[in-house]
Amino acid sequence: MAYLALYRQYRPRTFDQVLGQEAIVRTLTNQVTASRVAHAYLFCGTRGTGKTSTAKVLARAVNCLDPRNGNPCGQCAVCRMSDEALSVDIVEIDAASNNGVDQIRELRDQVQFAPSMLKTKVYIIDEVHMLSGAAFNALLKTLEEPPSHVLFILATTEAHKLPATIVSRCQRFDFRRIPENVILGQLRYILSQIGREADEEALELIARTAEGGLRDALSLLDQCLELDDGRLTEAVAIAGLGAVGGADVQAMIDALLQFDRLQALEIADRVYRGGSDMAVFARACMQHTRDRLVSGGNTAALSRIMDELMEAENRMAFSPRPRILMDAALVRLCTPELEQGDAALIARIEALEEQVRRLQERPAAATQAPWAPIPEEQIPPPIPPEEEIPFPIADPTPRAKAPARPKEKPAALKPASTAPRTDEKNIIKTLYETMRAVDVGVSQSLHMARHASIQGDTLMVTFAPGDEIFMGALQKYMPQLTKAAQDMFGCEKFVMKTVNPDEDEMNELARKAQALLGIKVDVI
C-alpha cells in the first residue's frame, strides 16, 4: 500500500477529533442529535483549520444509522462506505476547477433526484469563492429552497468574496486558527503513535511556522521526519523548514532598536548565505517584534520596525531580488534621521530613553572611573592674596642680591578669560527651554549632552563617543543654536565635539580648579 501522509492518516473521523473548534463542534452535534440540521452551511477560515474535515464528519453524521451523541458511529455500513469514499451520495466539488455556470446548472439538475443509498445527499463545495458570478446566480435559487433530501456545505478561505445573497442563505461558521498548544499536543500524540522522538524546540518551531493550521503542521512534521531517521532536533527542523534560528532573529531586532546598521546587514548576510529565504526571515522578525510589542516597551520603535518589514515582505512577493529589498529596509530602519515623520521621531526618542535606562542599570563598578575625583567640598580654598608662602629653589651659583623693592599689597587674582562663566546644568537647561519651541527633537538631543561650558567666546557642548547621531540631529539647527549662544551667554561661537568619559572628567575637574584658583589649568 502506498504511503499515506500524516494529515490524511490522522484526519478527524468524528466531531470529538476536530481540534480547536469547540463552539462549532458543540453546535453541530446538538443539531444532529435534535435532528435540526440546516439545509446549507458555510464554513469559513484559514487553511488547515478543519473546514473540509468537519464537512465530511457532518455528512457521515446526518446519514449514520446509529449516531452517538451527534457523532457518526464509524461501524455501520454507511460510515464504512463513507470512510472508503464509496458512496455516490456524498459529492465533493472543487470550485476552483468547476467554477463555470454549466457545471452549476448540471448540479442543479442532479439535486432533484433522491439519494441512491443514503438518507441525505450531501454536496461539499470547496473553495466556493472561486465560482463565477453567473455560477453564483445559478446556484442561488437551489441554495435557497433545496429539496428536503439535500444538504449543501460550502467551504472557503475568503468569505468576503462571496455575494451577500449566498451568505444570507447559509448558517455561517467561522473556523479560528488552532492554538499552538493544541497543535503541540497533537504533534506529540502522533509522534508517540509512530514511534518517533523529537525535541520540544523542534515541535515549537513547527507549530509556530504552521500559523494556526493543523494540516500545515502535520505536513511540516512529515517533511522534517523524512530529513533524518534519528531524533528530530531543532537544527533538523530549521533545515527542513528553511526557517531561521531564534538567535539570529533576536539579534536582528536588537540591532534595529540600537540603529546598528552594520550589525543588521551582517546578520542579514549570514542568514542569506545560510540558504534561508528573505521573506521567511522577514516574517520571523515580524513575529518576534510582535511578541516584544505585546510584552511592552519601545512601542513606537517596534511598530516602525513591524511596518517596514511588512512592507518589504509584501514587495518581495513580486521581486526577483528579495535580498536587496531586505537590505534597503534595514538601512532605512537604522537611519531614522532620514525620515521626518512623527513615528521616526518618536522611535528616536524612545531609543534615547532606552540608552539612558541601560546606562542607569549598569553596575556601579562598570561605570566607575579608575580614579575618584576630589569632592568639591574637599578642594582647599584659594590662598588669600595677603599671605605669601616662600618657595625656595636650590641654586649652587651665588647671585648678587637684588635691591629690595617697596612692599606692595598684591591685587586680588582675576579669573582667566577662558574660565566658565556659568554652571553647565543651567546652560543646557536654558538651551533646552529655548530650543523646545523650535523643535522637540533638538531639545531631546540636547538632553544627551555630557557637559556644557563657556570658554572665552565659545559655548562648548560635549557628547560621549557613540552619540554622534545626536550631534547630527543638532547640526542642521546650528544657526539657531549659535544665535541662542550669542543672545543668552554673549558667545560668538557654538561648538560640539565628542570627548571620552575619562577625558571629560579631567576637563571638568580642571574647570572647577580654574574657577576656584583663578588660573588656567591644562590637562596633560
Would you kindly provide a written description of the structure presented here, covering whatever features stand out?
With 524 residues, this protein is of the alpha/beta class. It has four domains: 6-175, Rossmann fold (3-Layer(aba) Sandwich); 180-241, Helicase, Ruva Protein, domain 3; 246-352, Zinc Finger, Delta Prime, domain 3, CATH 1.20.272; 424-517, GMP Synthetase, Chain A, domain 3, CATH 3.30.300. It is built from 23 helices and eight strands. The protein has helices at residues 6-9, 22-33, 51-63, 77-83, 101-110, 133-144, 164-167, 180-194, 200-210, 214-225, 234-241, 246-257, 261-273, 278-295, 299-316, 322-334, 342-361, 364-367, 424-435, 440-447, 468-475, 478-489, 501-517, and strands at 40-45, 90-94, 121-126, 150-156, 171-175, 451-455, 458-463, 493-498. The strands form two sheets. A five-stranded parallel β-sheet has the order 2-3-4-1-5, with helices on one face. Strands 6-7-8 form a three-stranded mixed β-sheet. Strand 2 (90-94), helix 5 and strand 3 form a beta-alpha-beta unit. Helix 9 packs across helix 10, helix 15 (299-316) runs antiparallel to helix 16 and helix 19 (424-435) crosses helix 22 (478-489). The longest helix is centred in the last third of the chain and has 20 residues, at 342-361. It is elongated and about 110 Å long. 29% of the residues are buried. The model is unreliable at 365-372 and 409-421 (pLDDT under 50).
